[in-house]
Design a protein that fits this description.
The complex is a heterodimer of chains A (about 260) and B (about 270). Chain A is an all-alpha fold. Chain A has one domain. Chain A has helices at about 1-10, 10-30, 35-40, 40-50, 50-55, 60-65, 70-100, 105-110, 115-145, 155-180, 190-210, 225-230, 235-260. The mean pLDDT of chain A is about 90. In chain B, helix 2 runs antiparallel to helix 5 (about 70-100). Chain B has one domain (about 1-260). Classes of the chains: A mainly alpha (about 260), B mainly alpha (about 270).
């Protein structure tokens, strides 16, 4: 319990900065909806000229494109990207900082098992991510309601917003796995930035090529905003892969760390 | 000279990974594109042409004819630039901050070299790394475009893009090294560099979606060298080149100025 509270406290400032930045970005992007909506009528007319087959291939529904969830699907990716960086930082730092700060021997000689240490640390990370996602949900909902004059489909909006949390979980788990495999991560940010942006770019390239097999390679596409906006549902095959990644990464992390040599200073 | 060589060696492995990653992105994207073009999906490019501007913008496809390989490369360039910017800003920050992070500053800074001399060696090593990444990107793109361009001229356009990319890299290198030189706490300085990078990326995407914000273009380096102008219309905007060089120069001078004067954390 002490470890849990210590970890909670030590990431507090970091989380506050992230929450404020993501909140500001959310307000900035969602405030654009009014401008977008003004040109929506023209947009719908353009789309109606297309044969259904092509529209389907691009996952676009004429009725949905001019709604708030339709617009939200274009911008959500950027916000999820920020959330993913935050999550991966936390996932890597949780155990990694004991090795880099040379405090691993101090912590592990305490009368707690390694399993308990990992559990406490992961729970602290989970708490921080849950709080961040909850604040994000509040800010996003509030801005959505204030910019949309005529109301919108909140269920769909909620499903899309929650994907922020799911993607965070995936990247936190990946970060945790990386931190137990790599002996010493001296700088956390370069590792997490390149990993997260790498997956992001893979997803965007997949979208530009309109190839959903590439989507399996990018956690950002496991909860594809465009798909959710259109069908108000998650895609079970991708969600399952996402869940599997989290479970496997965490389980492997426990196993590896329990049996790993820890170097004392 | 020793510091320069030491830094080159220290960054070699990460540089190789970055080059591989960059090559992989370009090769898979353009390779997939080749498959698509071979299947003759003309309808897709017609469709994209008629998409509303904001949708095109989010996909990075504004005003492009995707049946032309050069246009598709313009779409991919956005991600190439993003990767190069991450590499440069992190490299610039870490190469200055690492001595304090690893508690080796006492070892290095008692050597018979001035602080400015050490910073110069480190920055030269960082620029060399950035240049290698740039050249590898150039070589891979050149080879791929040679296969796909169907006789359309691309060499000059590609060279301009890579020159723009190099200016972008220098700019973000200076952002990273200035933040590390000024701030002093290693973790905070990479954080600031990453924050600036992320902010400018988000701002550039926001400008894509919302053209009312075009006046803010000068705030984000990702908008200084628009890939489409480099590749198709030919030409840098003097204002943005001057701005990029100016900002990089000011930040580099600031890095020297503050690093020479501040207390080192030991």
């Amino acid at each position: 319990m002490n470890i849990y509270f210590h970890e909670l406290r030590s990431y507090r400032k970091n989380t506050i900065i992230w929450v404020l930045s993501v909140g500001a970005a959310t307000v900035m992007f969602l405030s654009m909806f009014t401008i977008y909506y003004e040109s929506a009528g023209e947009l719908v007319r353009l789309f109606q000229a297309f044969p259904d087959a092509i529209l389907k291939a691009f996952g676009m529904d004429v009725a949905k494109i001019a709604t708030l969830p339709g617009f939200y699907s274009f911008i959500l990716g950027f916000l999820v990207l920020c959330g993913a960086i935050q999550a991966m930082n936390l996932g890597i730092s949780a155990l990694g900082r004991e090795a880099t700060g040379k405090t691993a021997d101090f912590l592990l000689t305490k009368p707690v098992t390694r399993t308990q240490v990992i559990t406490a640390k992961l729970l602290a990370v989970l708490t921080h991510l849950a709080v961040s996602s909850a604040v994000f949900l509040l800010v996003a909902s509030a801005s959505a309601f204030s910019v949309s004059a005529g109301g919108f489909d909140y269920g769909t909006f909620l499903m899309m917003t929650l994907s922020f949390f799911y993607v965070q979980l995936i990247f936190a788990a990946l970060g945790f796995l990386v931190s137990v495999i790599v002996p010493k991560i001296k700088s956390v940010l370069p590792v997490s930035l390149s990993t997260v942006f790498g997956f992001y770019i893979v997803g965007m390239v997949g979208a530009a090529l309109n190839d959903d097999r590439i989507y399996y390679l990018s956690p950002f596409k496991y909860f594809d905003p465009a798909y959710i906006a259109q069908y108000s549902a998650y895609q079970p095959q991708y969600a399952a892969v996402g869940a599997a990644v989290v479970i496997l990464a965490v389980a492997a992390g426990y196993l590896i760390y329990k049996n790993k040599d820890i170097h004392a200073v | 000279m020793n510091v320069f060589r030491r830094e080159l060696r220290a960054n070699r492995r990460s540089l190789i990974f970055w080059c591989l990653g960059m090559a992989l992105i370009i090769l898979t994207a353009m390779g997939k594109y080749a498959g698509m073009a071979a299947a003759g999906e003309q309808s897709i490019s017609d469709f994209i042409k008629m998409m509303p501007a904001s949708v095109q913008a989010v996909m990075g496809m504004s005003g492009l004819d995707l049946s032309d390989a050069r246009s598709f490369f313009v779409v991919i360039y956005m991600y190439v630039a993003l990767m190069a910017a991450i590499h440069a800003s992190m490299l610039g920050a870490v190469i200055i901050a690492k001595e304090e992070r690893d508690r080796t500053s006492e070892f290095l800074f008692v050597k018979p070299m001035t602080r400015a001399g050490i910073v110069t060696s480190k920055l030269l090593a960082a620029v060399t790394n950035a240049a290698v990444l740039n050249l590898v990107t150039f070589a891979v793109s050149f080879a791929v475009m040679g296969q796909l361009a169907k006789g359309q001229p691309f060499a000059a356009g590609l060279a301009r893009m890579m020159l723009g990319l190099f200016l972008l890299q220098l700019l973000f290198l200076s952002v990273g090294s200035a933040s590390a030189a000024i701030i002093g706490r290693p973790r905070a300085s990479t954080g600031v560099a990453a924050g600036i990078m992320l902010f400018t990326f988000l701002l550039s995407s926001a400008i894509d979606i919302n053209s009312d914000w075009d006046v803010l273009k000068f705030l984000t380096p990702f908008k200084y060298f628009p890939a489409r102008d480099m590749m198709l219309d030919g030409g840098f905007t003097v204002f943005y080149v001057a701005l990029a060089v100016g900002v990089a120069a000011v930040l580099t001078v600031a890095a020297y100025y503050f690093f020479k004067r501040r207390d080192l954390r030991v």
